[in-house]
Design a protein that fits this description.
Elements: H1 16-28, E1 35-36, H2 51-61, H3 76-87, E2 99-102, H4 104-114, E3 121-126, H5 130-140, E4 146-148, H6 159-167, E5 172-178, H7 190-202, E6 206-210, H8 226-229, E7 235-240, E8 253-258, H9 264-279, H10 286-295, H11 298-322, E9 328-329, E10 338-343, H12 359-369, H13 375-387, E11 389-390, E12 392-393, E13 403-407, H14 413-432
């Protein structure tokens, strides 16, 4: 090409949660059944939406106006409804103009990092959710900048690590929080959130809080939203319906801007995000029309609480099975629907393996592991080939830890128990080899 075509940051774009599917499909094509523990799609794991929710959506689909454009920032009545929900938290107060809809949070995340100054950085948690870390690193043309979540302290953030990295890196303009966290299932304590707000205030930063799982908590824990703790610090909350409804195929998420009036530079940034959506004309309309009708229905709270309770029960079942392996660092989860399991230092070594009976699959896996790859990815490939279980290595979540992420979504109890018993047995065999 006359000039370099591909930006330097493009090399930072990766999404192992989907990449592992390519490997799993190869094994599936050889006749092995695959158990998908790689991605957080409740529908794929046998979750059934209540009929009353389906009826609301079906009725909306029969209305002719559903098929027209909607305002670029989103339907006004829906934004009024969401603003009122946030204002009821008795924290920061917003108006419908402080809300903008996007085609899922993936779209919103891409827009946020796209319009930050190239030399500026947003520091996020590690293990990191790939959509955030890849987008931020791609915009900057450098590897992601992260603060540590500590597996030896319930996955809570290392606040000293965060403080020092912010203090000694003047390019940091924002702090990312994912609450409840993906991939660990940790819920940020109130005091921890307040400390992060204090750090942002001290260094004049803004906050981004991905709250896609904010209403998915269980086992006696609640999540505090950014709106409740932010005080007068500028911030953005990212929300959506893909997980809590759940309706991942709707591609419907939104951002809420907090304290725009406290900083003119932040206000201009929010305006740029709105303008970016205006250029695209609008985002998906049908889900926006459905949001007040579904989330405002008293049946939704009951449905969500029951669903959360079942996720919590499954988290206990998984804990009962995997707690028995002493080589693992295992933390109970309280939010979202994932768990990150870590191998203790020195546990994983080269040349470990699980027996694979099918010679074709064995050959394929041996080709994959005959490369310079992290030890946990090697384990994941063997687990996939031997047991047909597809999990994601934690080294792919921008982390120097060794482990894997699973979901808590399998609604068939027998399948759940069999899957995690197979994971346990695979770990034992692998470590003993």
């Amino acid at each position: 090409m006359r000039q370099q075509l591909l930006s330097e940051g493009a090399s930072e774009l990766s999404y192992e949660i989907r990449e592992i599917v390519k490997k799993a499909e190869q094994i599936k094509n050889l006749g092995k059944e695959i158990y998908w523990e790689n991605i957080g799609d409740p529908i794929q794991k046998n979750h059934k939406l209540p009929e009353w929710i389906k009826k609301i959506i079906a009725d909306l689909s029969l209305q002719n106006e559903t098929y027209s454009y909607c305002p670029s920032k989103g339907i006004l009545d829906t934004r009024k409804f969401l603003a009122e929900q946030t204002n009821q938290l008795n924290g920061v107060q917003i108006t419908p103009d402080d809300i903008c809809f996007f085609n899922g949070l993936g779209d919103a995340i891409a827009k946020v990092y796209q319009y930050i100054t190239l030399t500026s950085r947003v520091i996020g948690p590690s293990p990191a959710y790939s959509t955030h870390s890849s987008a931020e690193a791609a915009h900057a043309g450098h590897e992601p900048l992260t603060y540590k979540l500590d597996p030896n302290n319930k996955w809570y953030p290392d606040l000293d690590d965060l403080y020092n990295k912010v203090k000694y890196n003047p390019n940091v303009v924002g702090i990312l929080i994912i609450n409840p966290d993906n991939p660990t299932g940790m819920v940020y304590p109130y005091e921890t959130l307040k400390r992060i707000v204090e750090i942002a205030k001290e260094f004049k930063l803004f906050l981004i809080c991905d709250e896609i799982y904010i209403n998915i908590t269980y086992n006696g824990v609640r999540a505090y939203s950014l709106a409740e703790v932010i005080d007068d610090v500028p911030g953005i909350s990212m929300k959506g319906i893909s997980k809590e409804l759940p309706w991942p195929g709707a591609r419907c998420g939104w951002m809420e801007y907090y304290n725009r009036d406290k900083d003119e530079d932040f206000n201009r940034f929010c305006q740029a995000l709105d303008n970016a959506k205006m250029i695209e004309v609008c985002s998906t309309k049908l889900p926006q029309l459905a949001i007040p009708k579904i989330l405002g229905d008293p049946r939704f709270k009951v449905y969500r609480e029951e669903t959360n309770h079942h996720i919590g029960k499954r988290s206990k079942t998984i804990a009962d099975i995997l707690h028995t392996v002493p080589e693992l660092t295992f933390n109970e989860t309280f939010g979202a629907f994932y768990n990150t399991i870590i191998f203790r230092d020195g546990t994983l070594k080269p040349n470990q393996r699980i027996r694979i009976d099918d010679s074709r699959i064995k050959t394929l896996v041996e080709q994959w592991v005959n490369q310079d790859i992290p030890h946990d990815k090697r384990f994941v490939y063997y687990l996939l080939g031997a047991k047909g279980i597809c999990v994601v290595p934690i080294s792919s979540f921008c982390s120097d830890l060794q482990g894997f992420r699973v979901t808590l979504l399998e609604e068939n109890e027998e399948t759940l128990i069999n899957t995690f018993t197979s994971i346990r047995d695979g770990i034992v065999e692998y470590l003993a080899s």
